[in-house]
Design goal:
alpha+beta, 9 strands, Immunoglobulin-like, 160 residues, 4-stranded antiparallel beta sheet, 1 helix
């Protein structure tokens, strides 16, 4: 029998082979790299307001406040949160009764701030602004049954 490859020698020879194999296995798992990643932001589109007159309720009369309805469309691919609704600068409130019942007859809009009106992506929703319009006691008798058009600006932030 040959004494060249005894179990003890075979074990001693196996140790370096195992260590080399483990070193290769560890090296195969320890890989790093560096470079630059890229992302591009999209662009937003303006919200649009539509006619919400069909959903209004006759809750406005002299000396009282009433609700305002707004129909808002979000054409963006992301949801938004409407935070402020204000009357468009240098515009007047009008009515379907014409000049006999316009903003000079005591109808005013109060800016609505601190709102949290959620509007999903690519949708239209109608919102009620509680107590946002007032009619003074100076309003003309011709304003009975009038539907008022209030030009407004809407401010929103992304809500993703």
């Amino acid at each position: 029998m040959s004494k060249l490859l005894t179990p003890k020698r075979a074990a001693l020879l196996a140790v370096p082979v195992v260590l080399v194999a483990v070193g290769i296995a560890i090296a195969a798992w320890n890989v790093t790299g560096n470079g630059t990643g890229y992302a591009k932001a999209g662009t937003s589109s303006s919200l649009t307001l539509g006619d919400a007159s069909a959903s209004t309720v006759a809750d406005l009369y002299p000396g009282a406040t009433g609700n305002v309805k707004i129909a808002v469309t979000n054409p963006n691919s992301f949801p938004v949160l409407i935070t402020t609704v204000s009357q468009t600068a240098s515009t007047s409130i009008t009515s379907d009764k014409g000049a006999s019942c316009n903003s000079s007859t005591g109808v005013t809009f109060t800016t609505q701030s601190g709102l949290s009106l959620a509007l999903a992506a690519s949708t239209t929703s109608t919102f009620t602004l509680t107590g946002a319009v007032a009619m003074s006691n100076a309003s003309a008798n011709a304003c009975q049954g009038a539907v008022f058009s209030i030009p407004v600006d809407v401010t929103a932030v992304s809500n993703a």
